[in-house]
Amino acid sequence: QVQLVESGGGLVQAGGSLRLSCRASGRTFGGYSMGWFRQAPGKERDFVAAINWSSGGTRYADSVKGRFTISRDNVKNTVYLQMNSLKPEDTAVYYCASGYSSYAYWGQGTQVTISS
After folding, report:
1. Number of C-alpha atoms within 13 angstroms, CB side, residue 21?
2. Which end of the chain has fewer CB atoms surrounding its CB within 10 Å, N or C?
3. Rounded-to-integer distance, Cα 63 and Cα 28, Å
4. How many CA atoms lie within 13 A of 24 on its CB side?
5. pLDDT for 11-54, tens place per residue?
6. pLDDT confidence band for 4 (50 / 70 / 90)
7. Is the sign of the CA dihedral 32, 49, 36, 11 positive or negative?
8. Contacts of 100 (CB under 8 A, 6+ apart)
């Protein structure tokens, strides 16, 4: 049974940084894509960043390019999202997701709040 557990959310001022973690368990993730999504109140869930577990290839939403960095630690089975230069519009619940051809597995989410 795949489990994804996020941590690292919190309240920070604009311009600050946070690092989110997503610990994955329950299977081997070779070839899987690990992604971060976010959902602000009253809005749809949006893609933020993704990394291929095997190749390390990454992609980002335009809104976070140059500010966020996704990475993974294969030994710890953990994916990270380093978020710098945070803006109030980054406020959302951030979700970790995993899948092969689609994102089949989701974490419970962690709240990120950026004050102006």
Report:
1. 8
2. N
3. 31
4. 26
5. 999 999 999 999 999 887 877 899 999 999 999 999 999 999 99
6. very high
7. positive
8. 31, 32, 33
Distance CA 50, CA 71 (A): 9
- How many residues are listed for the chain in this entry? 116
Please report where in the chains the tokens 């710098």 appear, as a residue: 84
DSSP 8-class letter at 33: E
Looking at residue 100, its pLDDT comes to: 87
Helices then strands (H, E): number in the chain?
A: 0, 11
Letter for the amino acid at 20? Answer: L
How does the average pLDDT of the chain come out, rounded? 95
How far is the C-alpha of 47 from the C-alpha of 81, rounded, in Å?
13
Q: Which residue has the tokens 């989701």?
A: 106
Whether residue 72 is predicted with pLDDT greater than 90 in this model: the reply is yes
